[in-house]
Amino acid sequence: MAYEFSELVAMSKSWGSALVDNGWLSAEAAAALLDYDARTPENLFRTLQSRPLIVAFMGGTGVGKSSLLNRLAGKAIAKTGVERPTSKEVTLFHHQAVFINQLPDSIPLETVKVVHHENPANKNIIWVDMPDFDSTEAANRHLVLQWIPHIDVLVYVVSPERYRDSKAWQLLLAESGRHAWLFAINQWDRGQAEQYADFIRQLALAGFAKPLVYRTISSAEINDKDADEFAALQRTIASLATQHTIADLEQRGKQVRKVDLQNKIKSCITALGTEQDFTQLQQDWQSAWRKTSDILRQGFEWPMQRMALYFTEKQAHLMAGKQPAGPQTLLDQEMTFGLWDNWAQNRFDDALDELILQADQYQLPVQPLRQSLQTIRGQAAGIIHTQAELSARQALLNPGNLIQRWGLKITRFCEIFLPLAAMAWVAYQVLFGFYESSKNHTEYLGGDFAIHSILLILIVWLVPYFIQKQIKPSLEKAALNGIRQGLGKALATVDVAVEDAIEKTISQHTAMLAQGNKLIAQFSAQDEAEPIKEDTILSRMLVEME
């Protein structure tokens, strides 16, 4: 789908706003994109099918910009004099048949002076005299910046003494690609050939291979007409005031702005970091968490033993049919806070802070990651305590290992069966002995048999009992093993939560990158502007696009 340039600008700014709102870029880093100036000269004439060429005189204080406009008009329409800054307003000089129907909202009417003329030769040109860019008054500089986007041709005016002024020169370097440029060394009656040649060299450094430079004289009396090229400047500008040239300037201006906006989007994409850096960040976390979890396990040994003792005591109370009304002992009070104390929280926070610091060292946006990890900071204590308590309760429900549990079952069975079997054997011997003694008239069972029978019954009862006592698992050890297992599961859960937070951040990062690259692809899908023919007047007024 093809979009208008204005739509692409709006989409780009919306993307930039989303980056700032979600913490991916700071407002300063995205300022170039969010504050992108999409204004063009045609914005002043939105309802007209054709429009005039807009030409502005721009330069520093005292170079004679207003004098040139007055000379062009043949009368004093712009204020001149020794007062600095001289110009405090924008003067528009155009044919009375021209109507500007879209003055920018950001430009107050009181800063604009409009002067009409009836010269048909300049009917298709609007002349603009702007305030001194190097003015000490910030309002004047701001006014210049407000008007520059609406200019087709900038006539950069200097004087022999001030052609190296830095402020106006910096503006030329910043705006060189967006406009067509003509250059005038004014007050040339005081100039020298070396200054002209040096100015040409300076323009070459700014990207103008064959600049059009005119030597002009702004004074009323011109003694040497051959030294004054003001008429040639007029003819050059008049030759540009055609719809074809204006259309070429508009297309090239749009192309320059498109490249400029693309570069701003690319700059934002670069500031987002790479997916490879996020992948490395995940690996760094895995290594850091192994160390942190080992430290936590070591630090939890004593609290785990205390917690195991706590659950053992509680279990004993429950088995005895007692239920404490609330925390009564020091151990109760300690266990109210669980395993996770300030020491553990600090170790965990240090690990997360180290992760954020590592992301910053990779020059990745840290705010989205910080926001994703913030919830986990407060959840770790609950995860550890809940999982440890659950595992402890499960361990107490089935204490010991499988061998111990089967051994207990066998000894319990033997504790009942063997004494009964022994008593049955004794009863059998008593009855059988009584029968035999009556039949054979022999002596009935004696004292030895009674002693031996009692010993047998005691032995077969006591042996399983003592074996059961020996193999019975310790509730405290069972609780401790359960807590350790629960701690391992809890630490793994915390690790997964952090990994999920990183994955969430990576997904958001990928989505933001995809949107930015999609915008760049949309710009590439736009129609390219036809190149300006070489060695023409217009081509000499333009800086070659990169």
Quick rundown:
By secondary structure, the protein is α/β, with parallel strands linked by helices.
Characterise this structure.
With 546 residues, the chain is an alpha/beta fold. Among the domains are: 275-400 and 475-520, no CATH class; 402-471. 59% of the residues lie in helices and 7% in strands. It has a 7-stranded mixed β-sheet with strand order 3-2-4-1-5-6-7. Helix 1 (5-21) packs parallel to helix 8, helix 1 (5-21) packs antiparallel against helix 16 (475-524) and helix 9 runs antiparallel to helix 16 (475-524). The longest helix has 50 residues, at 475-524. Residues 325-337 have low confidence and may be disordered.
Give the helices and strands, then pairings.
Elements: H1 5-21, H2 31-34, E1 53-59, H3 65-73, E2 90-95, E3 112-117, E4 125-129, H4 138-147, E5 153-158, H5 166-175, E6 180-185, H6 193-205, E7 213-215, H7 230-240, H8 243-271, H9 275-299, H10 301-319, H11 330-335, H12 342-361, H13 367-397, H14 402-440, H15 447-471, H16 475-524, H17 537-540
Parallel strand pairs: 1-4, 1-5, 2-3, 5-6, 6-7
Antiparallel strand pairs: 2-4
Helix pairs in contact: 1-8, 1-16, 8-16, 9-12, 9-16, 10-16, 12-13, 13-16, 14-15
Count of helix runs: 17
**Largest pleated sheet:** 7 strands, mixed
State mean pLDDT (0 to 100 scale).
81
- State the distance separating the first and last CA atoms: 26 Å
Shape: rod-shaped
Q: Helix and strand succession?
A: HHEHEEEHEHEHEHHHHHHHHHHH
In terms of DSSP E residues, the strand content is: 5-15%
Query: What is the helix content?
Result: 55-70%
